[in-house]
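As a warm-up, study this chain.
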Amino acid sequence: MTIDNQFRASFVRRWHTNPDLAQTVDTLAGHGGRVARIILKLWPDASSALLHWALVHDDGESVVGDVPSTTKGATLIHEQERAALDRIWPGLPDLTPDEYDRLDAYMWAQHHAPHTLTGDGWPECRRWVFAQAEALGVSVSV
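Now compare it with the structure written out below.
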């Protein structure tokens, strides 16, 4: 595996299956960077392993494509994406703290298409994010 694979993965576009956000330009590099920033804001002493995961956790999508969150739970797709991620970043821990992903997604939609936040699963996402923030003791920052 060459550095080209890691570099190319950063250009995968997100939101292409969401009609309200498909026109926004968001890449895995931007998403990973924002997830790392969220983690650093909430936990300034976060481990390097967690920050590494934050930056590259979706890079497997460079092989299987950007997969909508409603589909990611499908075992076969998750396994294919994880296998691709393992080829690109061997030895990356299998972390799944998707509260950072959901918080980034909600904030992206809030910034780019606030009119959508009253439907299509966004109210549930918001409630879940705030419940997780409360459980993790970071609700004041969120």
